[in-house]
Amino acid sequence: MRIGFVIDTFDIGGSELNAIKVAEGLARQSIPLTVFHVQQDGALRHRYERIGAALIHVPLSGLVSRSCYRATRRIRREAMVRRLELLHTHCVYSNILGAAASRGGARKVPLLASRRWTGFAVRPGLHKLNAVAQSVADAVLVNTPNLLTRVSGESPFSHPVYIPNMLPASAFRAVSADEKRAARAALGLPARGPIVGCVARLELVKDHATLLTAWQRTVQRRPDATLAIIGGGSLRPALEQLSTELRISERVRFLGEMAPETLPHSLLDICVLSSRDEGFPNSLLEAMAQGLPVVSTNVGGVSDLVQDRVNGLLVASGDAQGLGDALSAVLGDATMAARLASAGAHLAQSHREETVLQALHELYRATARR
């Protein structure tokens, strides 16, 4: 089967990471892949190059521009020349480009769009255009049951299909205590005391400000604990300043962006997510695969993964006091922490690559026949 991906960026983000994981899974099964990309370069580009995907740059300066017309025309022309049997679009802009390209000629190219956000992270205009793209697509891939219901309501003529995000076998690799100690030392993390970590982009939607305020409360009870903030983004200077103003900078480490293959969650004892919105919380799933207890705000698709007090603790978005108390509870109760971690690790098994790829292949074949 000949498949084309359309992606917005090569940056490290939830949708982008899921796309490359699927691409690598397809490559292991010798399925040829063409990737149309809006952004020229980024941290994940080398992984597409490594699997031998054909990369075609379709620059876009705006949706109301000549570049948009050229991009959709290029995608359609290459799809015809390469005899692609399916276009799978993965992101906000690529859904729009793919919808225009797949229907822009005498013969349509079967289109599988993707929906991985609930609303906060996307401007209203783009959200409406994506609703149109979802209606045009032959099917819409969603990664949470919550989104399955939402897409059906927003786009009555769409055909949403739920398939969860997948984890490669490497995500489950057991990291030895010696390896963990060495990795922590290399990053300047303390040798003693628990490490609580947040693996997320430093952008407004992830609400690290609330996390830092919560951490001020937590370290009053556990002064030996350290918060590791892993990820890059535009808000780093402001967040570093906030940690100083809150007088917790000695108990916070900003580690920057880390490649997913380094298993950043393996550095941690507890994973926390303070987002205002989430399509699907990949960070929490990856933490579960590493056997960590998780604490998160109850937003978007988080509740599709985390059951409060079963495989994690949930608090309201923006509730710094509740988040701080939840972190303190897990830090102070080893039995509860182990129980939550065990339940999470069991759930993560259902997201293994082989299970998800089989379902995705079946969806690809069904969509291509429409």
Calculate the mean pLDDT score and round it: 94
Give the helix/strand class: alpha/beta
Please, what is the CATH homologous superfamily of the largest domain? Glycogen Phosphorylase B
Number of domains: 2
Helix count, DSSP H or I runs of 4 or more residues: 14
Helix content: 40-55%
Distance between the termini: 15 Å
Strands of the widest sheet, in order across it, are: 3-2-1-4-5-6-7
Poorly predicted runs: none
Shape: elongated
Instruction: Tell me the total number of β-strands.
Output: 13
CATH fold-level assignment of the largest domain: Rossmann fold
The CATH class of the largest domain, by name, is: Alpha Beta
Main beta sheet strand tally, sense and closure: 7 strands, parallel
**CATH level-two architecture of the largest domain:** 3-Layer(aba) Sandwich
Written as H for each helix and E for each strand, in order along the chain, the element string is EHEHEHEHEHEHEHEHEHEEHEHEHHH
Binned strand content: 15-25%
Q: Give the C-alpha Rg.
A: 21 Å
